[in-house]
Structure to design on (76 residues):
């Protein structure tokens, strides 16, 4: 019985990490999406204010880091 419980722990941890990453992604997506309740002018101003945070998130994106690494290897 104890072996069954031990074998299921990594699976539960892996699912938790997956949902945590998905929740973080959706939180950022909702944060960047403009609210239809606000006037268009305010939506534009808020987007301009949020733009540096979006650039930082994209800069540390694993896909972008992988692309930059491949570019470095090809350049050498």
């Amino acid at each position: 019985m104890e072996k069954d419980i031990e074998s299921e722990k990594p699976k539960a941890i892996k699912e938790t990490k997956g949902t945590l990453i998905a929740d973080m992604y959706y939180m950022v997506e909702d944060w960047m999406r403009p609210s239809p309740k606000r006037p268009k002018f305010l939506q534009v101003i808020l987007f301009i204010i949020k733009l540096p945070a979006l650039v930082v998130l994209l800069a540390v994106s694993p896909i972008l880091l992988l692309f930059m690494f491949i570019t470095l290897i090809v350049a050498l």
In short: The helical segments are 2-32, 40-59, 62-75. Residues 2-75 form one domain. The chain is about 85% helix and 0% strand. The chain has one domain: 2-75.
